[in-house]
User: Fold IkappaB kinase from Wuchereria bancrofti.
Amino acid sequence: MDGVSEGVQYTNKFFWHQHSMDLIGNGAFGRVHKGRNQETGEFVAIKTCNRFNTQQHAREIEILQQISSPHIVRFIASDTIDQKNINGTKQMVLIMELADGSVRDELKKLENMFGLSYQILLQLIDHLEKGLSYLNSKKIAHRDVKPENLLIFNNSGRMIFKLCDFGGSRFLTDNFQPLHSICGTPGYLNEYSTANLARKTTTLTYTKDECDLWSVGCTLFECATGILPFVPEKGPADTPGMYNMMISRPSDAIFGRVSETGQFLWQKDFPDGRPADTPGMYNMMISRPSDAIFGRVSETGQFLWQKDFPDGRCLYPKSFRRILSEFIRRLFDRRESTRLTFNEFDEMCKELLNMKRILVFKMNILCLEEYFDTSTVEHFER
Assistant:
């Protein structure tokens, strides 16, 4: 039987089954399968590219060929599927190292439904910062940071996190170059892209940092709670609803929802909830207080905002929860005077990772709790 009848695809050096059991991921620009090297038997990840986005795939290959970091997925080769398998039309594929899973896979596990452990989250912050710092040094905007694009490699029992999917990435002339194209995933899109998507325009511009750091904030919030920070009534793809929510967000809110009367309710700390509603997302974004890190919509349509994590959703020690809330508020801060630069993000990550930890015995509940000491830091409240 030939390769097509068996459901097998080939390139010059690689092959893979198209069966769902070998499908790793499926997105707007292509599908990712588990495959093998025909000569060595090595397992690889093979991204089959959508034929209508050849220019985007060529740009992704160009970027992958020029970067190398322990915290960015390793690019192996690019190729085309054998002509006999695709009716005479060339289809491009990208071959990359095969991961053991992704952060999204971890968040789907029962034990992580309320977020990852703070020890794993700190490791993720460390590796994500290193990957983004490398891209920053190369003047590259990733533009789609999210749990699905953070791969996990198990190395002697230790998790190594690596950024992947550079389909929407761009080389920049400098790190402050204005960008306007809509790129990313609803729920993780920065406020400017959300507004452009809702208005069906590209009028508003944003920088690499405004794009990637916002997505980092959304990703860390979800990893800490198991839910997205800002979700309008019909879900994160409700762009107009999200836009309205964002423009009303207090600067220190990290969580927001809509109340029964349509009012935005914000929190500065972590929540209780889950998200695709483009008009709703737009409406949510334009009403977001600049300090809100969490937002939801109530039964009456009111936006509910918080400056902290929602109660019952973030199970971290109290001191770490406070520090992480502050960090995410800075990532979401849109005010000109206090907006986080990439260098400040880099410094805050290092301070967070190197912060002294003290075990405190709490007499009232007879248990030990880890306390994070901020007495010697510069970027966090003491």
Summary: The radius of gyration is 22 Å. The CA atoms of residues 109 and 115 lie 10 Å apart. DSSP finds nine helices and 19 strands in the chain.
